């Protein structure tokens, strides 16, 4: 049974600024994230890189879709041991090479590595020579594309590209899928096509 003194202690605890701060932190409104279709005539590339823990085994992946959210092409490959940042930039570079190979002129590039997107958009230089080498190659390709925009999306809206990057860990050789995607990405692709909102906790 709660005595008066215990009730008062409970009230003081609930009214404590620290408890109030924790409560507000856990109850902030979540961010709504949804993949968006490109405009008619545009092709959208979502790309991603993956690097696994202590081993640093890395892979890349990406997916191209049209204005109806229809699958055009997907790619994945293992790239050996490296960092997640290098995997991200390598995934974008490979995607752009495929843009040129397929003759797509109006292209929307989207990834969940915010820093990388800012480096590309603002044409910044980086200290890491390997990353800068990839960026230099990317900066040479982009002007060859008729129209090109680069944006960041939270990982909750980049789930198909993430699946392709995860597939890359399982591959001995680079792989490209044309017209028909692997079954593992189909449910997520349908979610994206339907405009499903995924909540991201702040």
TrEMBL record:
This is RNase H type-1 domain-containing protein. GO terms for molecular function: nucleic acid binding; RNA-DNA hybrid ribonuclease activity. Residues 46-166 form the RNase H type-1 domain. InterPro entries: RNase_H-like, RNase_H-like_dom_plant, RNaseH-like_sf, RNaseH_domain, RNaseH_sf. It comes from the Eukaryota. CDD domains: RNase_H_like.
């Amino acid at each position: 049974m709660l005595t008066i003194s215990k009730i008062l202690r409970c009230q003081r605890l609930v009214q404590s600024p620290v408890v109030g701060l924790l409560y507000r932190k856990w109850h902030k409104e979540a961010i709504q994230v949804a993949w968006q279709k490109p405009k008619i005539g545009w092709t959208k590339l979502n790309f991603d890189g993956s690097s696994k823990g202590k081993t640093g085994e890395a892979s890349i992946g990406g997916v191209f879709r049209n204005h109806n959210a229809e699958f055009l092409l997907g790619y994945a490959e293992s790239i050996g041991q490296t960092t997640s940042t290098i995997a991200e930039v390598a995934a974008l570079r490979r995607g752009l090479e495929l843009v040129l190979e397929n003759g797509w002129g109006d292209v929307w590039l989207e990834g969940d590595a915010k820093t990388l997107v800012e480096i590309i958009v603002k044409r910044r230089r980086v200290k890491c020579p390997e990353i800068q080498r990839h960026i230099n190659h990317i900066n040479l390709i982009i002007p060859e594309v008729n129209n090109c925009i680069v944006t960041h999306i939270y990982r909750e809206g980049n789930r198909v590209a993430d699946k392709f990057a995860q597939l890359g860990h399982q591959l001995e050789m680079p792989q490209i899928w044309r017209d028909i995607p692997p079954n593992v990405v189909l449910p997520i692709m349908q979610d994206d096509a339907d405009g499903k909102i995924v909540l991201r906790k702040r």
